[in-house]
Amino acid sequence: MRGFAMLFPGQGVQYINMLSCFLQKEKIFQNIFKEASEYISCNLLKLIKEGPLEKINDSKYTQPIILTSSIAIYKFWKACNGKNPSFMSGHSLGEYSALVCSGALKFSDAVKIVSLRGQYMQKITLNQSYLVKAIIGLNKNIIKKICEKYKSKTVSIASINSDNQIIISGNKIDVYQASLDCKKNGAKFIFDMNLSMPVHSYLMKPVAKKIECILKNIEIKKPKIPVINNVDVKCENNSKNIKIALIKQVYKTVRWKEIIDFIQSKNIFTMLEIGPNSILTNLNKKNINLISLNTSNKKFFLKAFKKIN
């Protein structure tokens, strides 16, 4: 078959007992989780098996858990002699997973970075209330104008996931008001996201500065497989530009819809989600041009493997 793209999910795909069907029998999964646990001094295997959910949802742990899950699935794919994709891309946090799997970033460095990234993002919420909402069925230009009403940039478009789904985040009161404005302007449905941080908003700029400091001492190589980044929808090859993109994506909009469009423009219509859930797969469901596969359990992994290889 033609080429395919690997997509790596971000925060929000975690749950207790995730990847259980892989962890029970596959040593690769157990070993990678043990390795990650050593890097951040936390037993991630025990945590995903037993919880508590509050701790799994603490970004300090959530981000390494999701990264490690994606890396483990990718390693298993390669151990089964799975084909290499033509492109890789990750949604937000997933960009780190893509960079590790493309050979640009060491796994040990990535686990440490995302643990700190999660910690810094969580700290932003101390003594402040934030809200993240998904707006369904409203044009992005209308949503952009609504967000621009807030002159102090307290409401931002966090992610353009598809033509039909746009995420806004920021100050709790202002995001709530903005969502009411979206409803008045014709949004079909609005729901709360399970996040308490102003993800991908201007309010995250202090976190971006900390990520910049961390990345100064990190080696990033040219990816062996092109990685499409979140902020520019570009495949960068040098360390400096990859780092700039990782810094900016903390407070800039995730341009996911454009990433999928870019992949399709290269005549690639098969998308394989490498993660413990099927969130990115579900986003593609309405696109009749795409074959969307996921690896969230053994059954789906094998189905995708047969389809692609």
TrEMBL record:
<dbReference type="InterPro" id="IPR024925">
    <property type="entry name" value="Malonyl_CoA-ACP_transAc"/>
</dbReference>
<dbReference type="GO" id="GO:0004314">
    <property type="term" value="F:[acyl-carrier-protein] S-malonyltransferase activity"/>
</dbReference>
<dbReference type="GO" id="GO:0005829">
    <property type="term" value="C:cytosol"/>
</dbReference>
<dbReference type="InterPro" id="IPR050858">
    <property type="entry name" value="Mal-CoA-ACP_Trans/PKS_FabD"/>
</dbReference>
<dbReference type="GO" id="GO:0006633">
    <property type="term" value="P:fatty acid biosynthetic process"/>
</dbReference>
<keyword id="KW-0012">Acyltransferase</keyword>
<comment type="pathway">
    <text>Lipid metabolism; fatty acid biosynthesis.</text>
</comment>
<comment type="similarity">
    <text>Belongs to the fabD family.</text>
</comment>
<dbReference type="InterPro" id="IPR004410">
    <property type="entry name" value="Malonyl_CoA-ACP_transAc_FabD"/>
</dbReference>
<dbReference type="InterPro" id="IPR016035">
    <property type="entry name" value="Acyl_Trfase/lysoPLipase"/>
</dbReference>
<dbReference type="Pfam" id="PF00698">
    <property type="entry name" value="Acyl_transf_1"/>
</dbReference>
<protein>
    <recommendedName>
        <fullName>Malonyl CoA-acyl carrier protein transacylase</fullName>
        <ecNumber>2.3.1.39</ecNumber>
    </recommendedName>
</protein>
<dbReference type="InterPro" id="IPR001227">
    <property type="entry name" value="Ac_transferase_dom_sf"/>
</dbReference>
<dbReference type="InterPro" id="IPR016036">
    <property type="entry name" value="Malonyl_transacylase_ACP-bd"/>
</dbReference>
<keyword id="KW-0808">Transferase</keyword>
<dbReference type="InterPro" id="IPR014043">
    <property type="entry name" value="Acyl_transferase_dom"/>
</dbReference>
